[in-house]
Specification:
- Helices cover 36% and strands 27% of the residues.
- It has 311 residues and is an alpha+beta fold.
- It folds into 2 domains: 172 residues, no CATH class; 107 residues, no CATH class.
- It has a 12-stranded antiparallel β-sheet with strand order 4-5-6-7-3-2-1-8-9-10-12-11, sandwiched between helices.
- Helix 3 runs parallel beside helix 11.
- The two termini are 19 Å apart.
Length: 311
């Protein structure tokens, strides 16, 4: 859900991305609600990531090129995005944005409504949306870019989008770099790898609130007893490695969920109808519980991922 909303917003603006490095816990504010990092350039260049890249080009980039004339398949390389409770959402993009592309983006923004060109410390930025809405604190951290948005190409080889004007200015002051809070209690945990395709994490309290009408379901019970969740998709020796972590409020809940998952894996291991690729996936899946943290690791054949994406 989170990734879908973010990418829908990106598609509306068609912003090109370029380069980047995996995000770490030190890069994020202490009250981060969610974060997402995607390295599309690595997906294109790493052998194991070609399935992801081909799916993106066919399912997303082609439609955007047809509607806007912007060729994302050659321009989009990476993105780092997050939202914190105090300052709202930030999307940080690295890469050269041509004047032609900037003009197209401004035209697309104008189609959404009011656009105001502003200046800060010699740098130009733009406001799109409701003139009376300053954004930022108090808005939904999962959906605060819909009404009013600030964006700028004022830093060379970067594009910055923010829901708060103050947050955008802070990014401009810092050369477009995210300012994290280093060591902090209760920070979102971030899973990392040398060759990270995708990193994401979130605090699950708000998701549990959304699901309160269905409070008898197993999924709802998990959400109510979970504090954080994170996922990492990376390359490992030519294979796709996936790691997921769930931090529960109670170690007993983490142990219970781990036991259920291990039971399901054991049952499927005897399913003769499964193909060899799926059997290998099951055999490579490991579930560990350390206190209130549940960790799931697996390694997948890139061909199986490509097949799943294309189904």
């Amino acid at each position: 859900m989170l990734a879908t909303r973010l990418f829908l917003f990106l598609l509306l603006f068609g912003l090109p991305l370029h380069g980047g490095a995996a995000v770490s816990a030190d890069d994020l504010p202490g009250d981060t609600v969610w974060y997402l990092y995607a390295d599309l350039d690595l997906m294109r260049t790493a052998e194991s990531g070609k399935g992801f890249s081909e799916w993106f080009d066919a399912e997303i980039a082609a439609d955007i090129h047809e509607e806007t004339g912007i060729d994302l398949s050659s321009e989009v390389d990476s993105i780092t995005a997050y939202s914190d409770a105090s300052n709202g959402t930030v999307i940080l993009i690295d890469g050269p944005v041509t004047k032609e592309t900037q003009d197209k983006l401004l035209a697309l923004a104008a189609m959404r409504g009011y656009v105001d060109t502003r200046e800060y410390d010699g740098k130009t930025y733009y406001f799109v949306g409701d003139e009376d809405d300053s954004g930022g604190s108090g808005r939904d951290p999962f959906d605060d870019l819909g009404d009013s948005t600030y964006f700028s190409f004022g830093i060379a080889n970067k594009a910055i989008i923010a829901s708060s004007e103050n947050q955008l200015k802070a990014m401009l002051d810092n050369g477009g770099r995210i300012v994290g809070s280093r060591s902090h209690d209760g920070a979102l945990f971030v899973l990392t790898a040398d060759m990270s395709f995708v990193q994401a994490g979130l605090r699950t309290n708000s998701l549990a609130d959304e699901d309160e009408d269905d409070d008898d379901g197993w999924g709802s019970n998990i959400l109510r007893n979970t504090e954080q969740a994170a996922i990492l998709i990376a390359e490992r020796s030519g294979q796709i490695a996936i790691e997921a972590q769930l931090k529960s409020k109670d170690p007993k809940i983490a142990a219970s969920i781990g036991g259920i998952i291990n039971g399901l894996i054991s049952l499927q291991a005897f399913n003769s109808e499964l193909g060899p690729e799926v059997q290998s996936l099951i055999e490579n899946t490991r579930v560990e519980v350390n206190g209130n943290v549940l960790t799931i690791n697996t390694v997948i054949d890139p061909a199986l991922v490509a097949e799943m994406l294309n189904d």
